[in-house]
Amino acid sequence: MRSRFVGLAAVFYSALLILAALLGALWDRNVFTLGDRSLLSLLIGVAIACGTVTSGILLFRLVPVLRKLSDELAPLLVDGARGRDLVLVSVASGVGEEVFFRGALQPVLGIVLASLLFGVLHVGPDRRYLIWTLWAVGAGFLFGYLYIWTGGLLAPIAAHVLHNAATLLLWKRSRRSSTAAGNEPPVEPTVVRGER
Fold it and tell me: Which of 121, 139, 154, 159 allows an S-S link to 48, with CB 3.0 to 4.6 Å?
């Protein structure tokens, strides 16, 4: 993950925040509501992130296609990335996506449509990535229910940011451990169908 990618991510997620604010103004809604019980919401978000990270690790171990996709994507996303860049992208994506999908869209479109649109944002270049899209739809429903349950964005933002950061940092660590053990990761990602 190069600093250019981090910059592009910051621009994209800032644009989502601006779009959310504009939609909020148009619909006369506060799209930045954090909820009333901050400490409880934060603790719920942390607990949910622990569950989603654990589930992700189990799926990774049980589903071979996830390991293959991981090997293909790692050189682009985590190999050579600095930990702080991974955390910055996690914060930007978690805040930007939650404010847009839960804070702006969900109150108007409902949880089902907002979650499906969240999944659309996570469509990969070919059908092997369908599992990632389905995971994102499920996460959209989970974060959407957190938004409803806690009455604000703090719990879904905390869960989303912590999930992304933990997943990326654990992924980076496992790749470094694999390299140290003599299992060199591939230098070039496998070419995805349709790319040259």
Answer: 159
